[in-house]
Amino acid sequence: MIEKTSKRTRRRHSAEFKAKVVVAALREDKTINQLSTEFGVHPVVVGHWKKQALLALPGFFGRRLERETQAVESRERELFEQIGRLEVENRWLKKKFGPLT
């Protein structure tokens, strides 16, 4: 007996498409089954993408705050280095030319 096996290639969806589906799922205007029919993906996939998005959301906001904090600290470090250089130059100039009065 010969069995027919059809090999389906796995469909790959873009990040934009996944985001669109997840946003629709998060709105909860339609059921996951309705969304899966509308977008042409399996209901389990829609649920999985929604779950992934919900798990990633807190980290998204945390990384943003972390990046902003690092940027501020970096700028602060640069400014302190500049202050140090200017103080050294100022002391050198005072030694070299004396106090300006």
Structure notes:
This protein is mainly α and 101 residues long. 75% of the residues lie in helices and 0% in strands. The chain has three helices and no strands. It has helices at residues 15-27, 32-39, 43-97. The longest helix is centred in the last third of the chain and has 55 residues, at 43-97. The chain is rod-shaped. The termini are far apart. The mean pLDDT is 88.
Whole-number radius of gyration? 30 Å
Mean pLDDT over the residues: 88
Instruction: Give the strand tally.
Output: 0
The N- and C-terminal alpha carbons lie at a distance of 108 Å
SSE series: HHH
Q: Main sheet?
A: none
Structure annotation, total helices: 3
| Overall outline | rod-shaped
Strand fraction equals under 5%
Share of residues in helices: over 70%
Structural class: mainly alpha
**Poorly predicted parts:** none
